[in-house]
Amino acid sequence: MHDDVTREARCFCGGLRLTLKGDPFYVSSCACTRCQRRTGGFFGVTVYVRPEQILERSGETRTFHLTDGSTTFHRCAHCGTSMWWVPDGEDDVIGLAGGCFVGQGLPAPQRMVFTATKHPWVCLPDGLPTFEDAPG
Ligand SMILES: [Zn+2]
Ligand SMILES: [Zn+2]
After folding, report:
1. Positive/negative CA dihedral, 134, 121, 123, 43
2. What is the domain range of residue 89?
3. Residue 1: pLDDT over 70
4. Which residues surround ligand 2, an ion (CB under 5 A)?
5. Counting ligands in written order, which one lies closest to the CA of residue 116?
6. Ligand 2 centroid distance, CA of 112 (Å)
7. Which of the residues 48, 62, 65, 100 has an alpha carbon 20 to 30 A from that of 88?
8. Per-residue confidence at 14, pLDDT binned at 50, 70, 90?
9. Structural domain tally of the chain?
10. Is the dihedral of CA 62, 55, 45, 94 positive or negative?
């Protein structure tokens, strides 16, 4: 855990930015159907941090609720990049989009969940813990 490192996340258009202090406390990848559709990629990578690790934030957001009401997603109001999300009822966890930290040397994911819906040709590192659906 490096508490002194700072990294900047930015959206596709650059209008939405945030500065993260310290390493995330957990990094998870997920191949569920929602993450695939939300990101447009074959899996999502979530960087879990504490709210006090976000030093600065700039830019305009639009928020969206999942239809099941479990998570609020914050997207750039201009380009629509999904940049962070907060599980409803949780005030000490923020999930950040790993892909927004291009070139910032993030720690690798510590697991992949929902591998049951992963494309079979997506290869995972040897020894990565995997779960067919939600972890137990
Ligand atoms: Zn943007
Ligand atoms: Zn997912």
Report:
1. negative
2. 6-117
3. no
4. 30, 32, 35
5. 2
6. 9
7. 100
8. very high
9. 1
10. negative
Query: CA nearest 101: which of 8, 15, 31?
Result: 8
Q: Mean pLDDT in the chain?
A: 94
Query: Residue 10 Cα, ligand 2 centroid: separation in angstroms?
Result: 21
Residue 82 has pLDDT above 70, yes or no: yes
52 C-alpha to center of ligand 1: Å? 23
**Does residue 130 belong to any structural domain of this protein?**
no
Q: Does 61 or 38 have the greater pLDDT score?
A: 61
Q: Is residue 38 part of a domain?
A: yes
Q: How far is the CA of 116 from the centre of ligand 1 (A)?
A: 32
Is 128 part of a structural domain of the chain? no
Q: What spacing in Å lies between the alpha carbon of 38 and ligand 2's midpoint?
A: 9
Q: Is the pLDDT of residue 129 over 90?
A: yes
Q: Which ligand is nearest to the Cα of residue 13, counting in written order?
A: 1
Per 3-state DSSP, the chain is made up of helix, strand and coil in percentages (nearest 5) of 10, 35, 50
Ligand at shortest distance from the CA of 112: 2
Check which CATH number belongs to the domain holding 24 and give it: 2.170.150.70
In a domain, 132, yes or no: no
